[in-house]
Structures are given as structure tokens and as C-alpha cells.
Amino acid sequence: MGALRDRFWERPLADLNxxxxxxxxxxxxxxxxxxxxxxxxGEIEHTNVACRLLDxxxxxxxxxxxxxxxxxxxxxxxxxxxDDVSWLPSTCAYRxxxxxxxxxxxxxxxxxxxxxVVRAGISVVGRVVSEDMAGPLEHHVVDWDEDEHDDEAxx
Length: 155
Ligand code: SF4
Hints:
- The chain is of the alpha+beta class.
- It is 23% helix and 13% strand.
- The protein is globular, with a radius of gyration of 16 Å.
- The structure holds iron/sulfur cluster.
- Residues 25-31, 77, 88-89, 92-94 line the site of iron/sulfur cluster (SF4).
- It holds the Pfam family CxxCxxCC.
- This is YcgN family cysteine cluster protein.
- It comes from Erythrobacter aureus.
């Protein structure tokens, strides 16, 4: 792991060290939600059902270090695949930097406030149910993108 360099988030993603890469995440928890993918069309719909390891009140993984042991298909976002993950929210720091966009203005790296993502309405905190309680995913399809159409939220 390297040190965090001054304003590292303005550098290209390929320039970031491992610690800077991790620090870029805003902790919204959106990538920890299940999706429904239709085999015939490849269409993906979002749900409000969270991975069983996600704490739904903090949007934090309860066992980040060992998550792959419990959830083998947990997505590990890397530089190689960031362009291929079409369902990342438009506010996701990785997606935005891959597209050459600045971080959202509420991002904790700009403000020092990790609650900004909650106030901006982007975090899943208190808005999702654990997969252990949810029942069929098809009953939980939601349109998270509604918030993102508000430019204030994305930027
Ligand atoms: S969607 Fe992006 S910013 Fe949000 S938790 Fe996942 S990797 Fe982090």
C-alpha cells in the first residue's frame, strides 16, 4: 500500500496506488445490491435487496476482508473491469473518474464528511433489505437512477 498523495483523485485511475484506489469509494453501497438479469434480453434491473454481509444501517460490509470467502461472486472493482460494469451508478467515483469526470461535490475526499453521500440521497443506508429477509428478488425491483437524474446529486 502507498501513501495518499495530495489530490490523488484528480489523477488518472491507472496512476493510483492501492490505498488511493480504495479511498476513492464513497461507500454508497450500491454495488452491494442484487440485480435481476433477464437471460433472454441481457437487461439488468436494480433491486433494493442487499448482500447478506452489508449492514443496511451503515452501508458498510460487515466482513470486507473476508467477503470473498462468504460471497464468492462479490464484485471486486478493478481498473480492468471498471468500464465493463454498466450498472455502476453515475455518481460512483470509479465510473466518474474512468469517464474523466470530477468527483461529486459531496464526496468525502472533497469535504472530509463521510455522511455527505447519505445527505445527497445516494447511499443505500436505511433504504434496503437484506437478502436473508427479502424473498423473491423480482418483488424488489427499484429505479435507483431517479435520484441520479438530478444533476445536483451527481455533481
Ligand atoms: S458504487 Fe462505487 S462508490 Fe458506491 S460503494 Fe460501489 S464502488 Fe463504492
